[in-house]
Amino acid sequence: MADFALQALGSLEALPAADWDGLAPAAYPFLRHDFLLGLETTGCTTADSGWQPCHLLLRDGDAVAAAAPGYLKGHSYGEYVFDWAWADAWRRMGLSYYPKLVTAIPFTPATGPRLLCGPGVDPAGAWAALLEGVKQLAGRRGLSSWHVLFPEPETAAMLEGLGLATRHAVQFHWFNRGYADFDDFLATFASRKRKALRRERRRVAEQGLALRTLTGGEIRPADWATFHRFYQLTYAKRSGHGGYLNRAFFTEVAPRLGDQVVMVLAERDGRDVAGALYFRGADTLYGRYWGCEEEFDCLHFE
Fold first, then answer.
1. In this structure, are 119 and 233 located in the same domain?
2. Exposed, middle or buried by CB within 10 Å (0-12, 13-18, 19+), for 186?
C-alpha cells in the first residue's frame, strides 16, 4: 500500500478546482467542484445546517492521490437512509451518535463514485488507506461512525471486504432497453396497461397543460426562481419546511452546470404551474426535484 497521508478539508475553497475536478469523472455532475463548493457558499452545507464539510484527501507527498466528499453530521436529515433507529439505540446506551462522518452527495440519493483516484492509484489500496485515516480522525474528533452512502456496487463489496457493514435499501430505476421511441417502450406492456398509460397522458393535455424542456443556457434566471418556488412547495407539503436547498443554489450554482441540467416546465394559460429538475450524466438522467402550484391529474408522472 502506498504511504498516503489523510488530510481533512473544512471547505473545498482550500483546494483548487482543477485539482479536484482532475480526479472527478466529468460525466457525474454531483462530484463537480463547483457543485459541492456551491452548496457550501450558498449556506446549504455548513455547520449551522448540520452538514459541516470535512472532505477527505489522500496525499502522496504534496500531490493529491485520491479524494472523497465528506461531512460531519449533527443529524440524519437530507441523507435518505433513515438511520434514526440507530441514533436512538446509541442514545439508549448512553452514547452520542452525532457527530458522525458521512461520505455522500448532500441531499442526493444517487449511486455513483465516492472516492476519486488519480492516475495510477489503486482504488482498493486507496480505500484501505482512507479507512485507516478515518479511524484516526474519528478518534481525534469523537465521531461515532463513518457512513459511505450510495456507493457503486463494486465499491460496496470492496468496503465490506475491509470490514464495513453493509446496509441494504431499495430504489426503483428505469432502464432504456434500446427502445426506438415511446411507442416501442409501450409495446412491452400488456394491452390494458398500454391503454391506461395513454389515457393518463391524454389527461394531461385535456387539463390545458403544455410541457417544455429546457437545457443549460436555455433556462432563464426567471425559470430558476420559479422552480425554486415549486421546490419549496413540495417540501412544505411533505415535510413542513422549505427544503434543504435555498434560492441561491438554484439561481447561482445550478446554472454553472451547463448542459448537465435539464428542466421541464408545465404551462397552463400562459403561466408555469409545475416543474421538474434533472441532472444528466453520460448515460443516466437523474430525476431530482419536482413541484407544483396546483394539483393536476397524472402530471407528476408525465
1. no
2. middle
Q: Is residue 183 part of a domain?
A: no
pLDDT given at position 3: 86
237-260 in b/e form (b: 16+ CB < 10 A) is eeeeebbbbbeebbbebbbebeeb
Q: Domain span at residue 276?
A: 207-292
- Residue 195 phi/psi, 5-degree rounding, is -65, -40
Q: Which CATH number covers residue 44?
A: 3.40.630
Same domain, 14 and 156: yes
Residues 149 and 216 grouped into a single domain = no
Q: Which regions in the chain score pLDDT beneath 70?
A: 1-2
Residue 212 domain-assigned (yes or no): yes
At 149-167, the pLDDT tens digits run 999 999 999 999 999 999 9
Amino acid at position 7, single letter: Q
Strand partners, 265: 212, 275
Q: Which string of DSSP letters, residue by residue, matches 3-54?
A: --EEEEES-GGGS-HHHHHTTS-TT-GGG-HHHHHHHHHTTSSSTTTTEEE-
Radius of gyration of the chain (CA): 21
Length of the chain counted residue by residue: 302
Cell numbers that stand for 259 in this block: 448542459
Position of cell 485520491? 66
| Count of structural domains, the chain | 2
Residue 176 in any domain: the answer is no
pLDDT score, position 290: 93
Sign of CA dihedral 285, 291, 294, 296: positive
Q: Is 123 helix (H, G, I), strand (E, B) or coil?
A: helix
Specify the pLDDT at position 169: 86
